[in-house]
């Protein structure tokens, strides 16, 4: 890491790590804590793209392409980040292969995210998301890493509307839930 010119920075909860439109010459790895990656529209409404936790990379796509950041990245908790200067990383073949693997996995994640967001109703978005999480976790009973506001932001909907839909889905016998623990009733693995 010394040869790559990596360095560490700490951020307080809520602090901006990368601002939308900023040029980025490094990508980061969350060493401690968590970050939120948010896309803001012209009116300032934020949509949660994802959260990143310890050992996860972020900003690799736009640092490799020298494109301005399309998202704002902020500290979800107090966190520390290890920064990798992209020009030095480009000289390391094995590291590049690992980064390509990470990018391929991120592409799959974003494809799934588009699938959830392309559903017409909030109920369909929730079912799509929960089914995907059940498949990933291999169980009809799951725990998600999002609170209600983050889940609403992730599914590009209003928190109160999401809560209402969740209550109706519970009444209809589709799901059971308590906080971040969900059980998708009638779950069948495809």
Report on the structure:
With about 190 residues, this protein is an alpha+beta fold. The chain is built from six helices and eleven strands. It has helices at about 60-65, 85-90, 95-115, 120-135, 150-155, 160-170; strands at about 5-10, 15-20, 25-30, 35-40, 45-55, 55-60, 70-75, 80-85, 140-145, 175-180, 180-185. The chain has a four-stranded antiparallel sheet with strand order 1-8-3-6. A four-stranded antiparallel sheet has the order 2-7-4-5. A three-stranded antiparallel sheet has the order 9-11-10. The mean pLDDT is about 90.
Overall 3D geometry?
A: elongated
Helix content: 25-40%
Task: Tell me the Rg in angstroms.
Answer: 18 Å
Average pLDDT taken over every residue: 91
Please report the total strand number as a whole number: 11
Helix and strand content put the structural class at alpha+beta
Give the biggest beta sheet.
4 strands, antiparallel
Distance between the termini: 43 Å
Arrangement of strands in the largest sheet: 1-8-3-6
Count of alpha/pi helices: 6
Query: What is the H/E order?
Result: EEEEEEHEEHHHEHHEE
Uncertain stretches of 5 or more adjacent residues? none
Strand content: 25-35%
């Amino acid at each position: 890491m010394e040869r790559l010119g990596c360095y560490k920075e700490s951020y307080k909860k809520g602090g901006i790590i990368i601002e939308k439109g900023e040029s980025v010459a490094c990508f980061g790895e969350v060493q401690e804590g968590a970050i939120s990656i948010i896309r803001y529209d012209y009116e300032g409404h934020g949509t949660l793209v994802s959260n990143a936790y310890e050992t996860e990379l972020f900003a690799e796509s736009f640092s490799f392409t020298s494109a301005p950041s399309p998202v704002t990245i902020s500290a979800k908790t107090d966190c520390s980040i290890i920064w990798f200067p992209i020009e030095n990383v480009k000289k390391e073949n094995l590291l590049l292969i690992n980064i390509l693997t990470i990018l391929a996995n991120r592409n799959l994640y974003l494809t799934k995210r588009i699938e959830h967001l392309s559903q017409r109703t909030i109920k369909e978005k929730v079912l799509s998301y929960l089914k995907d999480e059940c498949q990933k976790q291999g169980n009809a009973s799951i725990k998600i890493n999002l609170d209600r506001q983050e889940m609403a932001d992730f599914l590009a909907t209003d928190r109160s509307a999401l809560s209402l839909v969740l209550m109706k889905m519970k009444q209809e016998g589709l799901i059971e839930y308590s906080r971040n623990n969900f059980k998708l009733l009638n779950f069948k693995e495809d």
